[in-house]
Amino acid sequence: MISIFAKHTYTLDTENNDGVYLQRVSSRVRGEEIAEYLGAKFNPVSGYEDDVCIRVKSCGLKHIRDGDYVDALDDNWLVGWLKDRPKVKVIAMSQAHYELLKKELTNDLVLIPHHHVNFERVVRDREKINTCGYVGVNSPRDRSINHKIRRELKKIDMYFVPLFNFITRQDIIDYYKTIDIQVIGYFDYLDTPFRHPAKVINAMSFGIPTVAYPIMGYKDIEDYYIKVNNMEEMINEVEKLKDKDYYNQWSNKIIKEAEKYHISEIAKKYKQL
Length: 273
Hints:
Layout: E1 2-5, E2 10-13, E3 20-23, H1 25-38, E4 41-42, E5 52-56, E6 69-71, H2 78-83, E7 89-92, H3 95-104, E8 109-111, E9 131-133, H4 140-154, E10 159-160, H5 169-176, E11 181-184, H6 198-205, E12 210-212, E13 226-227, H7 231-241, H8 244-257, H9 263-271
Parallel strand pairs: 1-4, 1-5, 5-6, 6-7, 7-8, 9-10, 9-11, 11-12, 12-13
Antiparallel strand pairs: 2-3
């Protein structure tokens, strides 16, 4: 039996009243959703002593037994602690993450990517190609970047409608059904292996191409998104995707690749533990 431990998700109202945001999304994705799919225990208080135990984004190692798994995710401060606990096993979330941890740690290490949100394999069925977006946060810096993206896309008659406030998995599914191209316009963010490709893989599962700056965390999907280095290149690539034949070539390619990240496939990796 598998037991998964993770802090519960919760919603948060922002001070400037720009939406309600789900906090600890990784706890839901890597904890609740996987536990429910596997029929595993989630945050048991007893009866897990003989189980394979996975701690998602643990806040410390004192309560973790040798032989348990830590799903490290983007908590880079865990690396230093894990060096002192070589018998604790570690789960990496992407190829770049795995390669970094392999260099830094002597712990047993396994790679388990994020599963995508599209359990039901919903297919994008929109007739027009006129709307771009992405799922993200609504910080002042993000708003500034998104304003520039919206302004530039408008010049080629494309809308830009990002999603910031979401709570359920269905919220994200419903959103992806309304857009045609995912645009991630961050060209100057610090690039580290602790960033992962889940956002791109989610869009892939609906057949939605992503145009984005290449980062280390996207190594797993190297040939399955459109790489751009600046805003001008981004607008040019979006313009190309307005051609339906070209769009469908990308859509058919990525939706097949996304099947590797369906929860039914990712669950097999947990069962192997």
